[in-house]
Specification:
Elements (H helix, E strand, L loop, with lengths): L3 H6 L12 H6 L6 H5 L4 E8 L2 E8 L6 E5 L13 H11 L2 E5 L11 H15 L6 E5 L1 H15 L7 E5 L10 H5 L8 H12 L26 E8 L3 H13 L4 E10 L2 H4 L4 H18 L1
Parallel strand pairs: 3-4, 3-5, 5-6, 6-7, 7-8
Antiparallel strand pairs: 1-2, 2-4
Helix pairs in contact: 5-6
């Protein structure tokens, strides 16, 4: 059951995303304003070019701090470099991090590997420009891309990644976990929407035997050697079980992971209802972990 305060604040009757609805989902996306980014003057921002990838760079007004690469959500088909940042700017104002958000190419016009390549190119640009050993973070589809970039950095011998922060991550194209079948309607991202997003990214390969872990990190045969990891997800989220399994596999491989399953949280609850009590708890837990990792 969705947390009552969240349910009262969030539209839970939205229709599932279909291929024909991708353009409308993009056009109707929330616009994050300059005022939301700057948080009353505590944050400054610039638009920059990272190896041909447009990026938004948020800095604390007092100067630079530890870097974070944040990858936005949108089901692989929507969103932009400002998505989610009305909430995440508090990482900059409260913890003093420098947050880099890439405008990666979107499916279906740009299927795998274009999105993850753009994110990895941004990571390489950060290293060359002095933003070394960032925490790689992401929300939803961005959480999956963040996990993929972290796997790429491990397998390619760098750039160094200090930690990965995966928020309600989209990790598994097979869509066969119990939670993937459990939420068919009445919540913010349902099974049909998830299949639309994965199919846009992978086409007919979705769910088949030949999907790369750099597209769907749940496919990784080996999750050892990863940096400290934070995973969180709501209990009423189609991604719940794949998120729990990813953290569990990291533990079984001898890695460092922290997992939170927020009771009554639907997909994206903390951004859709940022002032709800559950959202405040979730954001505070992330900030506590992030503060420890960058200390």
């Amino acid at each position: 059951m969705i947390d009552p305060e969240i349910a009262a604040l969030v539209d839970l009757l939205r229709p599932p995303l279909t291929p024909d609805g991708i353009a409308a989902r993009r056009a109707n996306g929330r616009v994050v304003t300059d005022a939301e980014l700057t948080r009353g003057g505590a944050v400054t921002f610039t638009e920059e070019d990272a190896n041909g990838v447009p990026v938004l760079v948020l800095r604390p007004a007092g100067g630079d701090g530890p870097p974070v690469l944040h990858v936005h959500g949108g089901g692989m088909v929507a969103g932009n470099r400002r998505s989610d940042l009305h909430v995440l700017a508090e990482w900059v104002s409260e913890l003093g991090v420098v947050l880099v958000s890439p405008d990666y190419r979107l499916a279906p016009e740009h299927p795998h590997p274009a999105p993850v390549q753009d994110c990895y190119r941004t990571l390489e640009w950060m290293e060359r420009n002095g933003f070394r050993a960032p925490v790689v973070a992401g929300t939803s589809a961005g959480g999956g891309l963040a996990a993929a970039v972290t796997l790429m950095a491990r397998d390619h011998g760098g750039p160094a990644v200090r930690g990965q922060l995966l928020m309600c991550p989209m990790l598994d194209d097979r869509c066969e976990t119990p939670s993937s079948h459990q939420f068919l309607d009445g919540t913010t991202w349902v099974r049909a929407s998830n299949i639309t997003g994965w199919t846009a990214l992978l086409g007919d390969a979705r769910g088949g035997p030949d999907v790369s872990p750099f597209a769907a990190p749940a496919r990784a045969a080996d999750v050892s050697g990863l940096p400290p990891t934070y995973v969180d997800v709501g209990s009423v989220d189609v991604f719940r079980d794949e998120a729990v399994e990813y953290a569990s596999r990291i533990w079984r491989a001898g890695g460092d992971a922290e997992l939170h399953v927020w009771p009554g949280g639907c997909h994206g609850f903390d951004q859709l209802a940022p002032d709800a009590a559950l959202s405040l708890r979730a954001r505070a837990a992330r900030m506590e972990w992030l503060g420890r990792i960058i200390a």
